[in-house]
What does this fold into?
Amino acid sequence: MPRVNMNLNNVPDNVEPGWYPVQVESAEIRTTQDGQGEFIRWDLKIIDPDSEFNGWPLRVNTPIKLAPGKDQRALRITKDFLRAAEIEWDEDGFDTEDVLGAELEVQVQHRTWQGRVQEDVTSFRPL
It folds into this structure.
């Protein structure tokens, strides 16, 4: 079997905590594990040519339909995301196609999930 000669010691495991400009790459409506709610899974890409993380992917989920009895304030996450991306909505909602290519800033923090440290997008603001 061939040996691959490369040094991975300086490759970061995660995007460092902080604020990053991103572009929305894709959107997918998904159902929650309990089958009672829905959310949008947004795939983002860091767009900072001066950052070592330029081009790195990020992902964030925003709720669009909550299970009965869930606190409706959680929908504010979706509203905050759209506002930061400068996307308009009306009483009938919004089109995810309008969000593709939008640019905004996101705050990245770290969290531990299933014993592994990973990025967690926690806040949004206009670019």
